[in-house]
Write a structure and sequence with these properties.
heterodimer, A: alpha+beta, Rieske Iron-sulfur Protein, Naphthalene 1,2-dioxygenase Alpha Subunit, Chain A, domain 1, 5 helices, B: Rossmann fold, Ubiquitin-like (UB roll), 3 domains, six-stranded antiparallel sheet, 8 helices, binds FE2/S2 (inorganic) cluster, binds fe (ii) ion
Chain lengths: 340, 326
């Protein structure tokens, strides 16, 4: 299917975990483009189009020699700006020999890349995620590729009404007499939800992670925000008898193409920071919820691809995802003319 | 556990920031600029050029002002306010009551005047209408676009932000009326440019003149920001019709003397609103079925003809029934 692109290019997206980018050449498919990533001698991450200007051989098959990417086929060498600076078979470099180079920002755990109009990147900051860097917090994470478009993942992250059906064990709130109201708040570029739960017992994983006994009654607050097309962040707070236990679940959604998304996730917490059991419990529950959602999102995408995508019927509680769609629609309308 | 059948109530609101006036500067005769920030220095919501916010001045007094600082400054917002003798009280309240350390609630931001990417822009400002254009110009310039600004005003002394604009050199043409007469709109817009977009903000007379000059331009070229409603067509008759709120699964009847917004809100359907007069865009709603009778001052003629969105605070139905995304 060749549906119109539904992800804006003028946006910072996570290209990789910082730990996964080293001095060897790696290639990643991001937003329908093949991108070469590496760290130069000074440790700065470089992102280039992974396609030699000469005969389209992926540059990632070549090698990095003295901060130059040397193509495996005929040895064209490129600098970090994407300019071809050496052609072994002749003295001068052919006019126009260059590959695209993309603005990069490294911030804590993530390497962000801007694949749209490079001149618009300067005025846009990558989202701040203090919990991933604050030494009073600890975090763990991973990566997952889902065969569905990134908007389905955003919808899923903003959607609280599927928990009872898809995640009954992790999200059990059997003690509730009524569902607390869902507060949805919008601003120009973001949308968030929040719910406060009255005092109730903890689930097994919550008690394992915090070390609180399961029968102590705690008020809980959860909220989540569509930060940008590239990022969703959830916050969960358990108000314990002595202190609050805060967990932040970060999901960077990077479209690989229109129907595949790479999810780079992190879970940060401000409690039991060097407790391996807490880490294990948090890893397991977050991986599990993502794996519970994945086959559903993939089946939806397969249906959309196979049978088309007429306007869906939304329910009242889908207001956050309706708004996220309208934010994305506007970003696409406003997008500057893209370089080829 | 079996899935609960308990209904979830949704409370839908726009973000409200509790802010403090950091500084107040006289930028021209009768024009001040205010810098607003969170008292704890926290991060403010993101915005893009052309966005505006609501200052919730008193329970009865809400006014819209364009953000005119830099979107990359996430810790403060700048607005420019003209003391308008003919004002309904908003600008007077701002001029009289807001000083450094004053607290106020600010709703938004939202944007009905977004800068669409283009190779060339023609910016036309009249007076205080310069404010939304300031961040647009900065963005267009940074993106490497071609652009010009024609900035008209009564007198040079009444025109704010001239010092900032001086940095752009002769791309900015300043037209104080007492020195050069009225803006030369024929010269600026007389010849349609196929790949240029026109952005204009200013007094109603200027906006209508620009709309007239742009009639010959390609559809979608002209972008206008208004802060007060267009003169209304008093001949328009209002009839009663039915509205189906699709998401909520609720059907209501809108009588001739009430708005869609009032009726759906009474029925408990979450819907946002601010100006209630079709200028701010807060109540914009997608139309699933049916033909709206547009009475707002916001949508362009093409957008009205497309009928995909409507402002439910003022607009009505052409026909017996509308299905809305509510
Ligand atoms: S294909 Fe790269 S040098 Fe020839
Ligand atoms: S509430 Fe402002 S346009 Fe409807
Ligand atoms: Fe889920």
């Amino acid at each position: 299917m060749s549906a119109a692109r539904d992800y804006p290019l003028d946006c910072w997206y996570v290209a990789a975990s910082a730990a996964d980018v080293g001095s060897e050449l790696t290639s990643r498919r991001l937003l329908g483009r093949q991108v070469l990533l590496y760290r130069d001698g000074a440790g700065t991450v470089v992102a280039l189009e992974d396609r030699c200007a000469h005969r389209a051989l992926p540059l990632s098959m070549g090698s990095l020699v003295a901060d130059r990417v040397v193509c495996r086929y005929h040895g064209f060498a490129y600098d970090a700006t994407g300019a071809c600076v050496d052609v072994p078979s002749q003295d001068n470099v052919p006019f126009g020999a260059r590959v695209a180079s993309y603005p990069v920002r490294e911030a804590g755990t993530y390497v962000w890349v801007w694949l749209g109009n490079p001149r618009r990147s300067a005025g846009s900051a990558v989202p701040r995620m203090p919990w991933l860097e604050d030494p009073a917090w600890s975090s763990l994470g991973g990566e997952l590729t889902v065969a569905s478009g990134y908007l389905l993942l955003h919808e899923n992250a903003l959607d609280r009404t599927h928990f009872a059906f898809v995640h009954p064990d992790t999200a059990h709130r059997g003690y509730l007499e009524a569902e607390p109201p869902l507060k949805v708040e919008v601003s120009e570029t973001s949308v968030s939800y929040a719910r406060d739960f009255p005092a109730g017992p903890l689930t097994a994983w919550q008690s394992a992670a915090t070390g609180l006994p399961p029968d102590v009654l705690c008020v809980q607050r959860e909220s989540g925000v569509f930060v940008s097309p590239a990022l969703h962040v959830d916050h969960m707070e358990i108000v314990g008898p002595e202190r609050s236990y805060r967990t932040v679940f970060v999901r960077a959604f990077t479209p690989v193409d229109g129907s595949t998304t790479r999810v780079l996730w992190q879970v940060a917490r401000d409690y039991a920071t060097d407790d391996a059991l807490a880490s294990e419990s948090l890893r397991r529950v977050h991986e599990r919820t993502m794996l519970e959602d994945q086959p559903l999102l993939e089946a939806i995408q397969a249906t959309l691809d196979r049978d088309g995508a007429p306007r869906p019927v939304n329910a009242a509680a889908d207001i956050a995802s309706v708004k996220a769609h309208s934010i994305v629609r506007r970003l696409l309308e406003e997008e500057s003319p893209q370089p080829q | 556990m079996t899935a609960s059948s308990t209904a979830i109530t949704t409370v839908y609101t726009e973000h409200v920031s509790e802010l403090e006036v950091v500084s107040r500067t006289d930028v021209a005769d009768g024009v001040i600029s205010l810098l607003l920030a969170a008292p704890d220095g926290g991060e403010l919501p993101a915005w893009t050029p052309g966005a505006h916010v609501d200052l919730l001045l008193t329970p009865e007094l809400t006014r819209q002002y364009s953000l005119c600082g830099s979107p990359s400054d996430r810790s403060s917002w700048r607005i420019g306010v003209l003391l308008d003798p003919a004002s309904r009280g908003g600008s007077r309240h701002v001029h009289e009551a807001l000083a450094p350390r004053s607290r106020l609630s600010v709703r938004g931001p939202r944007n009905n005047f977004p800068l669409v990417g283009a190779p060339t822009y023609v910016f036309v400002a009249g007076g205080i209408g310069i404010t939304p254009l300031l961040p647009m110009i900065a963005e267009a310039d940074a993106a490497g676009a071609q652009w010009t600004l024609s900035y008209g005003g009564r007198t040079r002394a009444s025109m704010g932000f001239l010092d900032e604009l001086a940095a752009y050199g002769d791309r900015v043409v300043v037209w104080p009326e007492d020195e050069r007469g009225m803006l030369d709109l024929d010269g600026i817009l007389g010849r349609p440019q196929p790949d240029a977009l026109v952005y204009t903000c200013g007094p109603e007379g200027l906006l209508q003149a620009v709309e007239g000059r742009c009639a010959a331009w390609p559809a979608g070229s002209l972008h206008v920001e208004r802060f007060s409603a267009k003169p209304v067509d008093s001949a328009a008759v209002s009839t009663s019709f039915e509205v189906i709120c699709q998401r909520s699964g609720i059907t209501v009847t809108v009588p001739e003397d009430r708005s869609i917004l009032e009726v759906v809100q009474d029925a408990g359907v979450p819907a946002l609103s601010s100006c209630l007069e079709g200028v701010c865009g807060t109540c914009e709603t997608a139309v699933v079925e049916g033909e709206p009778d547009h009475r707002d001052s916001l949508l362009s003629e093409d957008e009205k003809a497309a009928g995909d969105f409507m402002m439910i605070c003022v607009s009505r139905a052409n026909g017996p029934r509308l299905v809305l995304d509510l």
